[in-house]
Amino acid sequence: MGGTSPCASCKLLRRRCTKDCIFAPFFPSDDPHKFAIVHKVFGASNVSKMLQELPVQQRADAVSSLVYEANARMRDPVYGCVGAISFLQNQVSQLQMQLAVAQAEILCIQMQQEPQMPESQEITVSEAERSYLMQNNLMGGMPQLMSFASPSNNVGQEPLKRESLWT
Amino acid sequence: MSSSNSVEGSYSKRCAACKHLRRRCAEDCVLAPYFPATHPERFECVHKIFGAGNVARMLKTLPVQERAQAADSLSAEAYWRVRDPVYGSTGIVIQTNQEISATQCELAKIRAQISMYEARRATEQQLPPPPPPQVVMLNLVD
Q1: Domain final residue pick, A48, A75, A102
Q2: Which of A57, A75, A93 is the C-terminal boundary of a domain?
Q3: CB of B74 within 8 Å of any CB in chain A?
C-alpha cells in the first residue's frame, strides 16, 4: 500500500523487494541500466554472494567496481577491464622512459655546473695524459705528482705502494 | 572392461568446466579449449565470479579467433576479484592511474628544473662581455 517501489534488481528479476534486499541500497529503481549490465556480466546470484561475503561498509565500493568492470566488458567484450589496464601500463612505461631521459639530462647539467676540485689546481693532469702514463708504464711519475699535490705522502716509499695502488 | 575404459577415457578427457560441473564434456564444448583439466583453479575462479553460463554465453557471442583472449581476460579479472573482493581489477586501474599521476608530477618537476637551468644559462650568455681595457692614445703631437 504505502510500500516503497522495488529496487532495480527486483524489478528486473520480477520478484518482491524485501526490506532487507541486499541489492536495494546500491541499485535504486531510477537507474535500471546499472543493475542490468552487472546482471548481464556477473549474474545476480554471483553478485549477491559476493556482497554477502563483504562487510556492509565495503559493499558500496564493491558495487561501484563491479559496475565499472561490467561497463568495461560491455564496451570491450574481448579484453574488458584488462584492456584498460594494459593501456594504462603502457602509459606508465612511456612516462618512466621520459622520466629517465629527463633525469639523465639534469644530471648532466648538474655535473657541468660542479665547481673545480681545489687540490688539483696547482698541477692538473688531464685524463689523456694520465692514461698515456699508465699505458707506457710511466707510473713512477704519478705518485710523485700525487705526493706533490698531497705533501704528506712519503716519496721514498712510493715504489712498493705504487704497485698496490695501480695494479 | 573395454566399455568402462572408454567411459573412463571419455570422463578423463573432460575439461575443467565439465569436471567441476559434473557433466559430460561434449565434443563442441565451448569452454573446453580455454579451461583445460590441467588447470582446474582457473575455471573455479571464473565460475565463482562470472558463472559458467555467463562465460559460455560471452564466449559464444565472439568470433572463434577472439575467444582465447576473452577467456584469458575473464580469468585475469576473476583472479583479481578473488584476491581483492572489494575492488578486483578496478583496484589495479586505480593503482596504475595513481602511478601515472605520480610519474607525471615527477617529470614536470624535473622538466621545470631543466628549464630553469637553461634559462639561467641563456641569461648568463646574454650578458655583455666586460669591456676591454681602453688604450689611451696620447696625442703628443701638437
Answers
A1: A75
A2: A75
A3: yes
In a domain, A163, yes or no: no
Q: Which domain, by its residues, includes A46?
A: 8-75
What is the per-residue pLDDT across B65-124, written as a single tens digit (0 to 9) for each?
A: 999 999 999 999 999 999 999 999 999 999 999 999 999 999 999 999 999 988 888 888
- Smallest CA–CA distance, residue A96 to chain B, in Å, is 7
Q: Among B51, B61, B87, whose Cβ lies nearest the Cβ of A46?
A: B51
ipTM above 0.90, yes or no: no
Per-residue pLDDT at A142: 36
Asked whether residue A33 is assigned to any structural domain, the reply reads yes
Asked whether B87 and A58 are in contact (CB, 8 A), the reply is no
> Total structural domains in chain A?
2
pLDDT above 90: residue A77:
yes
CA distance B6 to B8: 5
| A14 and A68 share one domain | yes
* pLDDT score for A110: 85
Are B76 and A89 an interchain contact pair (Cβ–Cβ within 8 Å)?
A: no
Q: Full-prediction pTM beyond 0.90?
A: no
* Three-point CA angle B36, B41, B45, nearest 5°: 110
The string of DSSP codes covering A81-149 is HHHHHHHHHHHHHHHHHHHHHHHHHHHHHHHHTSPPPGGGSSS---HHHHHHHHHTT-TTHHHHHHHHH
- For residues A99 and A43, membership in a common domain is answered with no
